[in-house]
Design a protein that fits this description.
The chain is α/β, with parallel strands linked by helices. The protein has helices at residues 9-26, 28-35, 93-106, 117-129, 140-155, 196-199, 208-215, 241-251, 270-274, 301-309, 329-342, 345-369, 394-399, 403-414, 435-453; strands at residues 60-64, 67-70, 75-78, 133-137, 159-163, 176-177, 184-185, 200-203, 220-225, 255-259, 281-285, 295-299, 374-378, 381-385, 418-419, 426-428. α7 (208-215) packs parallel to α8. It is globular, with a radius of gyration of 22 Å. It binds 4'-deoxy-4'-aminopyridoxal-5'-phosphate.
Amino acid sequence: MTATTAPDRTRLAALLAAERAAFTERNPRSAAAHAESRHLLGGVPMTWMAKSLAGFPLYLGRASGARVVDLDGHELLDFCLGDTGAMAGHSPAPTVAAVTRRYAELGGATTMMPTEDAEVVAAELASRFGLAQWSFALSATDANRWALRLARALTGRPRILVNSFSYHGSVDESFIVAGPEGPRPRPGNVGPPVDVTETSRVAEFNDLAELERQLAFGDVAAVLMEPALTNMGIVLPDPGYLIGVRALTRAAGVLLVNDETHTVSAGPGGCTRAWGLSPDVVTIGKAIGGGIPIGAYGLSAELAERLRRRTELDLVDTGGIGGTLAGNALSLAAARATLTEVLTDSAYEHMTALSTRYTAGVQELITTCGLPWTVTQLGARSEYRFTPVRPRNGTESQRATDVELEDFLHLYLLNRGVLLTPFHNMALMCPQTTAADVDRHLTVLGAAVRTLTS
Ligand code: PMP
């Protein structure tokens, strides 16, 4: 494999088959557990777990810090970290203590009553992201949904604009992609309530001219975006792009919603703080609960005041912003401990330094072996992509997908004790990840590449 040649497909297919066989041999208890799952839709607890590398998913035994142990007892270095849900590491001690105290000692995981933890978490998020008023959900998807409802209510406009091939959870308005024939539903979208081209507009990331053109229709309530795309590889903003997005949205009276669910890898206040951004709304979920479900959205003081004046909006009962367990005592106890004691400034320094080491190591491999790949870092997160030119938008990055090559690398790593994020080549560092873990990944990845190219 050189910068000009793709991997030999016949060789790749044979190597993949061999890794699949080794995986099956290595994981009999996971295979049996899956075979016995007769009442689970798709044979898995959640249908996306059916994305499997070798016919059955790897079952979890236990996990701690930067390591998981599968059902067959293999310890794996975990660079997936629950696709960011466990960015604080698995079961960090302060979060375990807070959750145990709330659930076992005090009791009352969910009572419809606020706890004092809520204000502490909101204040922490406010100081990290620079937005004054916060509310809680149970997932990042829900945080996005409620933020979009509020945006439509406050602007009186119907549509939402997203970047092509972005991902914001199962938010109906977001499954739209750009193409030469114009916007279209993202392929495979399951049962949309209405055609997404009626609810949404789309522009490529890093394309200010197209954003301006789309906003000129005058019907967009909010731009929902990640400051850097993280769900189709990592796509970084061009210099000036995010400043341009803010200027265009302001000029058009469109609210800017930064989804920091993944980009919180950039620092304690995500890209918003790291890059000095000023969105109207920030949404987040996953990592801030240390593994306990939570979502949150923060509004600027100005927006919160606009909302306060709209007394006809039913925010209290059945107005469409809900969730009986949202803001529950357990989530907030977990988030308080995770934010104030685990995902601290010094933890970020450690995680980012390791990610830099990881990125440099992968880059060295790319250079030494002449691989037609790129590697991109966003703070504690790094990802390699199978294209020699760094993609500038979701569509370009999507074109660099090579499922067979990805499956081979993931399986090769997994069979040797290293777990990357499924659906990605994403590697995330947590406070307990070590330099030796990073180096182990690089050694195994190097061996995989040499196997492929020799
Ligand atoms: N926003 C972003 C940027 C995400 O990547 C995801 C999930 N990968 C979500 C929102 C939704 O998170 P959840 O599935 O936990 O609701």
